Every structure is written in structure tokens, then in C-alpha cells.
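Pipeline run #58 for the internal structure catalog. This entry was flagged by the ingest filter as a single-chain record with no existing model, so it goes straight to prediction. Upstream metadata was stripped on purpose; only the residue string is passed forward. Reviewer on rotation: M.T. Logging verbosity set to normal.
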Amino acid sequence: MNDNNNNADSEKSTSGDLGVNNNADSEKSPSGVNMFYGASQILFDFAKQLRCKPTEAEDFLWVHLSNKKIQNVRFKLQHPILYFIADFYCHKAKLIIEVDGGYHQLPAQHEYDCNRDFELEELGLKVLRFTNEQVLLDIENTLRKIEDEVKQRTTLKFLKGNY
């Protein structure tokens, strides 16, 4: 799962800002929004490590999301955003997909997830969460929900002129 657009070795900022990608012009949407939202170099390094050891459910979903298989949009695996790492991210739809294991049901983790989702939604991003079981046992329904959201968000962007 080689991700050519995650340039963890990008040049460092001359202002010393933990290596935010200065070559991000190629990583901007036509509206000029950087797809990393100021993520630090440490997150890029950690995301690279996570890509090498996905969970079973992440690996299974990646087979269905990679190579523009849904609505011809690109998803990125373990994508740094702000100070988080999204399991999957589609910049065109501003859509984050999270695949949650059982520990996400713990009250403290659930609260963290809600706060994280709120911060990401403040950036105009949509977060869809699926359990490991939904991905592994009901992939058709999972993919339909993702495809519906991609259609809705890319159609709305087109209608608003934010493409």
C-alpha cells in the first residue's frame, strides 16, 4: 500500500514548524485548502507506521476504497489531519472514514471520539464511523453508506461551486 502523496520527507519549513509539508501546493484542492490542515511531521511518520500494520477491518475496507473504486474519488489510508490521523480520507468529498474496534465503546474513548469528530467537523469535514463488524460482516451496506455520502458531498460542492 504505497502512498506516493504522503511525503514524510518533504522539506521543512524555514520557520521551524515541525516540518509541515511546504510542498503542499500539489496537495491542495482547487479551492486552495490544504488536505493536511497543518499536521506535524511526527504525525506523518506515525501514519506511515500505521499504514504498514492495518487492522483486519482496515485492510479489508482498503481493498474496496483504493484505486478510486467508489465514485472515482481517491481515498488515502492513515491520513494526517490537524493533530489526528484518519483511518481513511477523501479530500474531494472532505470525508473521513473511521473503523472502530471494541475499545471505542468504552466511555472515555467514546467521549474522545465525539470531541475529535467535533473538531474535524469544525474544519468542514464529515466523519463516518463503522465498527469492525460492520466492515467485515456487512461490507455491501458499509460501502453503500460511504458511496451515498461521497455522492452527496461531491454534488453539494459542485452545486456550491467549491470544486
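catalog note: The beta strands are 76-81, 84-90, 95-100, 126-131.
catalog note: The chain is about 40% helix and 15% strand.
status: ready for reviewer M.T.
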